[in-house]
Amino acid sequence: MVEDREKARQELTEQLRSAKSQAVRNKLGQFATPASLASDIVRQALSLLGRGRSIRFLEPGFGTGSFYSALLRSASPSHIETAAGYEIDAHYFEQSARLWDGTGLRLHHADFTRVEPPQTEADRYNLVVCNPPYVRHHHLDSSQKQELQAIVSRRLHFQMNGLGGLYTYFMALSQTWMSKGGVGAWLVPSEFMDVNYGRKVKELLVSRVTLHRLHRFDPNEVQFEDALVSSVVVFFTNALPSDNHQVEFSFGGTLDEPRVSTLVGLNQVYKTPKWTHLPQSAVEHDRKDSTGTLADLFAIKRGLATGCNSFFVLSAEEVQRHSLPAQFLRPILPSPRDIAGDEILADKAGEPLIAKRRYLVHCDLCAERIRAEYESFWRYLEYGIERGIHKRYLCRHREPWYSQENRPPAPFLCTYMGRPTARSESPFRFILNHSQATAANVYLMLYPKPRLATLLQGNPEVSRVIWKALSSVTPESLVGHGRTYGGGLYKLEPKELANLPADVILDVLPKGTKMRSHRQLSLFGM
Predict the structure, then answer these.
(1) 442-461, pLDDT tens digit by residue?
(2) Does the model's pTM come out above 0.90?
(3) Which domains are present in the chain?
């Protein structure tokens, strides 16, 4: 009977999944948990709860009930005292209510984050298992965020970061539903382990509950077929941790047979800014005996965000078709996939010698002057207004809306996001740029700070030496400093690249230079 319901559940899941487009599911954060993974998670959670205990089960983001189904297959019915679920989507609720009718489940059609938790210990739950909706913060309007933050503050006396996705509020609020010593098991995106908004989640996990284990799946083994999200399973109990508590960090493989696993003291966990470095230690190894970081040598910035590349970044043919004046155009590099090599040469005018040249539309003149003096450019701006470009977020916050932020050309570039390829094991490329082309926000731009810039002016061949040194940084080190997503996708933010050890550069500077011989970054005066 239980297996028959599980088969029916899987069929229902596929039916409901097919009824919505992937774009809609992404916005709603609806990604069904594979049955085998749900079973593994419930089995691990039950082992933390202990044998023979009566189970008070709660699944806050119910969907079709993958974890409830796993519970019925893993625990004796006599041990399940009560079971409840919450589901906000009426479509899912109605179908799931029919599916699980007669099993004793109390399924509620409601938003879990806004329902008041049980007031007595006897009514709370000792097993909370959930794959919460992965709704990113930009799909939550400001009033939703403020309301969620206010609810957490009122119930937990704790302030959440406003950039956190909906799943972070699910995790935080679940504590008020849990009995003392109750077990929580959460399948969530692993990005909270590294990003700034995740600091508050991590603070909760190390100070408000006893964190037992985090198992991070290999990003090349995506758990959800239609979501490029690297996942982690978080296990904790609703109790304060002991002073000598250790947390298990595991990676890859399965929950039962991880590829790597180690115990880390809670103090070390608290001090580690990026939890994806645990149990891996490549970054700590890189920093050992380091005399500084790339931040001491370079100002590292994201390339510019235009607000609408299809309007502001044009090919030579498009420039000619619209008869745009040259004074309102700047060379800009195309996407990294359109640049064949990792060195960009330039002609005498500073234009990049590449196959797909691109030009950035940029102008600071007022509209009245453009209308009076530059008829073709004014027509192009009117075309943009017809398309509503001026109303886009970045454009409406610029004055005038068709101007661009200042991003001078940089001699060194690094791709912002990527995957390993047959050409290179590293997901990131360092590019030596001899041209006067700026770059969009798919690149990181490395601007030498004053002392290094002076050295490069007097020794142009050193630029090539530095570029080769940057390109020699191991993929493990780059990935370790960055962040990881599903499907083997990796990303580096400016501050993350800036944290690379400076030794990679200092070790290759010409002998006898003041910077290299002293090996003290204070000499840079930066």
Answers:
(1) 999 999 999 899 899 878 88
(2) no
(3) 2-280 (3.40.50.150), 295-305+407-524 (3.90.220)
